[in-house]
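step=encode ok
step=design start
structure_in=
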């Protein structure tokens, strides 16, 4: 199947890490299509291959079998064209560089002229709610602020496809919910096709159009759950019975009940 313009398409992906004496089947027959502009959450126990799938989509890891397309291109082509952006859990900011210069990093990697992006960086700093902190160092920021910088950095190439690997995993629940609401707004404003890896069932159900549940040994998709709630979703959704009912369903699939 061909991907939609800025969609993600995984077709029958297989990936085994070969070690001395012991092979790990990280992904078996994983197929998933994410339409352009959609928000998909990937959830599953530790070791079920979530990060492997992201590394494959970023072109950092190859597959043994199957086909991967992002906006109709290979992951490597998409990465070098700046079509994909990524934010990781530990935010991975360079401590000696300012907020603005951390955000500019992907531009340097792609060999683009940073001077052409001054306005874009200012706009992104505002988008993630950090206006006035352009020249701050990561050590001067809270954990939540550092994650905002990481998200701004992931967006600096104006990626059509955004990947996130547990971006709010280190934050407490109150801050996490604030960031969830902000992420929904940022996603709405950018229109990026988004794939979020998370351990948080409530985060997945709150944010996503679809929650993809994986299991391990071998890493595989066991169920794809549609989330029908209207947008924009507001904080009160976290307290609603229909929200809890869907979270319970995801938990049941996740824990194999
Ligand atoms: N570079 C690697 N070499 C060997 N095994 C790996 C490597 N990376 C991951 N694995 C193994 O592959 C499986 C999936 O890992 P990973 O994709 O990190 O899972 P998750 O992100 O869902 O926790 C795990 O069993 C892990 O130990
Ligand atoms: Mg992982």
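sequence_out=
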């Amino acid at each position: 199947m061909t991907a939609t313009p800025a969609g993600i398409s995984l077709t029958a992906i297989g990936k085994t890490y070969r070690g001395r004496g012991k092979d790990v089947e990280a992904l078996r027959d994983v197929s998933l299509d994410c339409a352009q502009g959609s928000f998909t959450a990937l959830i599953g126990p530790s070791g079920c291959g979530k990060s492997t799938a992201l590394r494959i989509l970023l072109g950092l890891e190859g597959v043994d079998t199957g086909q991967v397309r992002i906006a109709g291109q290979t992951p490597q082509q998409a990465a070098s064209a700046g079509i994909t952006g990524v934010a990781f859990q530990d935010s991975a900011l360079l401590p000696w560089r300012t907020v603005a210069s951390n955000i500019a990093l992907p531009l340097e990697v792609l060999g683009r002229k940073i001077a052409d992006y001054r306005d874009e960086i200012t706009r992104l700093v505002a988008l993630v709610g950090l206006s006035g902190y352009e020249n701050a160092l990561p050590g001067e920021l809270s954990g939540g602020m550092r994650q905002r910088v990481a998200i701004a950095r992931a967006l600096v190439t104006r990626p059509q496809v955004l990947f996130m690997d547990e971006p709010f995993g280190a934050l407490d629940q109150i801050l996490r919910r604030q960031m969830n609401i902000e992420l929904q707004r940022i996603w709405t404003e950018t229109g990026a096709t988004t794939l979020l890896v998370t351990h948080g069932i409530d985060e997945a159900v709150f944010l996503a159009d679809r929650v993809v549940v994986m299991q391990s040994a071998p890493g595989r998709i066991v169920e794809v759950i549609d989330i029908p709630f209207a947008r924009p979703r507001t904080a009160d959704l976290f307290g609603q019975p229909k929200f809890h009912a869907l979270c319970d369903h995801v938990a049941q699939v996740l824990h194999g009940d």
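step=design ok
step=annotate ok -> Strands lie at 8-18, 23-34, 39-43, 65-70, 84-88, 161-165, 193-197, 210-215, 220-226.
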